Amino acid sequence: MNDKLLAGLNPEQLSAVTWPAKSALVLAGAGSGKTRVLTTRIAWLLSTGQINPSGILAVTFTNKAAREMQTRLSAMVPVNVKTMWIGTFHGLCNRLLRIHYRDAGLPQTFQILDAGEQQSAIKRLLKALDVSDEKFPPKAVQQFINGNKEAGVRAHAIPVPMNPYEAKLIELYAAYDAQCNREGVVDFAELLLRCYELLSRNEALAVHYRERFRHVLVDEFQDTNRLQYAWLKLLAGSDNALFAVGDDDQSIYAFRGAEVGNMHALLRDYGISAPIRLEQNYRSAGTILDAANALIEHNDGRLGKQLWTDAGAGEPIRVFEGFSDGEEAQFVVDEVKALARDGWNLSDMAVLYRSNAQSRILEHVLVQAGVAYRIYGGLRFFERQEIKHALAYLRLAINPDDDNALMRVINVPARGIGARTVENLQTASRERGISMWQAACGAGGGRTGGKVAEFVLLVEQLRARCEHLTLAEQISLIVDDSGLRAMYEADRKEGEERLANLDELVNAALGFMPHEPELAVVEFLTQASLEAGDHQADASADALQLMTVHAAKGLEFDAVFITGLEEGLFPHENSFDGKGLQEERRLMYVAITRARKRLYFTSAQSRMLHGQSRYPIRSRFVDEIPAELLQHLSATVKAAAPRRNAWQQEAAPAFVRSSSIAGWRIGQALSHAKFGAGVVISAEGGGDDVRLQINFAEHGIKWLDLRYAADKLT
Ligand code: ATP
Ligand code: MG
């Protein structure tokens, strides 16, 4: 039995799996079998009778990883893994609090607030306390509360500040906690903190669990934060075995408070003389691994490790550079289809991107090509909250009687119109057979009546102002004037991503080619609903996997496409300082090491970003990889140009790579007999059949077919 379990492990893995009942840190690179070692160790502990299933506590990073570990374990040992304590920090804390709700001061039926519900709770609190939500935006309050909770700090423990603003935040934090206690609810951050406090204040309980969980095992240890580590220490005590696996080169959550320093702390706190190292990689072909190793060498302060494989070099990394983001997406989808025709499973292929907004154009091409796909750990573009809000305003602008749209945004951003008022409008509309909008127009005075009247006025103004604008201009105007932009600007946590998605919506509108120009808005909305309504391929179906690089952690695929490899996108423009850049490089390391057999790097020479055409230069990360590992696929690619720091050049003149099609260059300024001055932003086709995409100063972006337009261009 044991022999079978241990067969196939290399000597270092074997030593880690069969490590005595003492603490250890396995420090090893991607694909070296850390997760496998952790799972096999649990199986080995059980099958050798060293511990009962109830004596093990295992922490994973996601719920999916926990389920996977359970599945693997049940294939290895005949135990009921469902009863075992394997889960995420949140999941395990929830379980403990359910058992000890009384000691934790919670009602038996306590409910968990998700991020949205937490925000609503904060809004309610501000209202009850008559605190202005303009001065104290609910999102900012939420962030203050969660940040402190994640650092393990309660309101009363924050030193009294000089600054009255912060003093008020502390007061709100305390009041929020009191409100949650009254209502018997806990937010995510509270799960962990409450559980930590429960164990640290209740020695008998802590002793009970310490005697029970003789083995505490943690995957992805590099991404734990301070409170999580403190929680682990509390449970493991000094006598139990805390067995952690991790890779400092894959630490990608520093922005959320994760501390690689926990690795050093673990060695020190548990008197571990040296980490266990695994150096053989079993996941990736040699070329892919060489690329990962070469890239990460550019970081400093590493704990240091090298990976090797005996898998053979495999194929070179395919590098494709498209004229435009559209061409890049088309390339990815064409390759995916070709691989599928060759017998690869769609679900063994992943398309990775740095920022969520990048999925939009990929999704568009995938929908057109009829390729099934899933967005892992996220929503499809047109299902995202901010997109639905903006489109609801657009729908109201063309038809205010659209009750669904009205319901969606009547109080978004918050304008003091509560559920009761909305109910009254609904009743009025039902009783009198009119739309809610009509009911709203006739709503009486009073405080809430006044708020409704303001909303009516806003929509009237949007309608009037949208009338003579292009589709893209309408969306821009709506995002600004509805208050959505300001709302997301105030949201320091998720706002940036949501604003990027809204900008991307404007891009979608810019590139949208309606059949009937007068019906552009209607056609656009129809397409949006179709793309959103076309639900995600279900989990069991064979579907291409789309996800951010962050979401790809711990996963592996036969073929991986890393897209948008451009300065400003990946590495991200907000991360050009030293520390930020190193974290971006670790992200790139994670991305590369997801691939087993085939890896693609793709980028575009022009891209719509934040509503503007950009002419980015290729990501430095591609240049940090030895040229002999790369194979360039696009005919347009020339040798890497000298690097410029600022990639965000407004327009074309500084375009650095000379790629031309039918004599025209991306970024080249030109003049058209009818449309006037413009700049070429992308091109497609070849030979006699060439189309140029041109951004005209006065007429916006257009595609021109050179067969007809050539003689009008100078
Ligand atoms: P990451 O850092 O990306 O989380 P990891 O170190 O956790 O990677 P695993 O996911 O455990 O690596 O293993 C990578 C792949 O290598 C898996 O498919 C695993 O089954 C395989 N593998 C690990 N060890 C061996 C081995 N000794 N023999 C054959 N395959 C192995
Ligand atoms: Mg792993």
TrEMBL record:
InterPro entries: DExx_box_DNA_helicase_dom_sf, DNA_helicase_UvrD-like_C, DNA_helicase_UvrD/REP, P-loop_NTPase, UvrD-like_ATP-bd. Residues 7-285 form the UvrD-like helicase ATP-binding domain. It comes from the Bacteria. ATP binds at residues 28-35. Keywords: ATP-binding, DNA-binding, Helicase, Hydrolase, Isomerase, Nucleotide-binding. Pfam families: PcrA_UvrD_tudor (PF21196), UvrD-helicase (PF00580), UvrD_C (PF13361). This is DNA 3'-5' helicase. It comes from Vogesella amnigena.
